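Researcher: Watch the backbone:
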Amino acid sequence: MSGHSKWATTKHKKAAIDAKRGKLFAKLIKNIEIAARMGGGDPDGNPTLYDAIVKAKKNSMPADNIKRAVKRGSGEEAGAANYEDIVYEGYAPAGVGLIIECLTDNRNRAAAEVRSTLTKANGSLATSGSVSFNFERKGQIVVPVDGIDFDKLFELAAEAGAEDVSDEGEVYTVITDPGDMITVRKALQDAGVDYDSADLIMSPKSEIELDVDDARKVSHLVDNLDDLDDVQNIYSNWTASDEVMAELDEEE
């Protein structure tokens, strides 16, 4: 087990202090509605919905908002949008690859906004497969560091079938095969381990290390893409030294 995703750390910090709470809630509500639509409104029988609700609660979403999102998604209450999954591939400065996952009720709007945001940052859309070949689907469980000792978490996760456990500073990240994520998450819960989120992600097979100038440009572009209403998740294959990441953190 190895690997240390510095971008994951920065991303988690950003989410924890995100002033744009409304946009964050909108993304979380979409996740809940889609999960309820696909697997029903009972979280006990719908692990994807269960994890979506946990993530919303961890981000301080009011209980009433969560309940209404579940009802809309499951059809108990009117008002659910007809969201469509769209995945765009693109390039950021320095040749960094991007996977941009959208949930949208307007395909033309989503495409136009993603393309415009990339272009303004000297990036570009890419043809299907030209970026995604360097990524693979994984399960990711984020665990707060104050809930468990790293060695104990490593042992529990490994016994449950996890592929990797890393210390990201403020959180631990457990990586699994996509099909094992729920099993590993449940094993951690059974052992009394709290978790912040459990998601399927796209993990890069190889990374590009950036200097501070390129890292700043790419980080800014990713933030701008993340601000788009239709964008749910962004994955990239860049990394940087601890010194570069510290300098970027100071600029926030």
Summary: The longest strand covers residues 135-144. Residues 21-39 form the longest helix (19 residues). The chain has a mean pLDDT of 90.
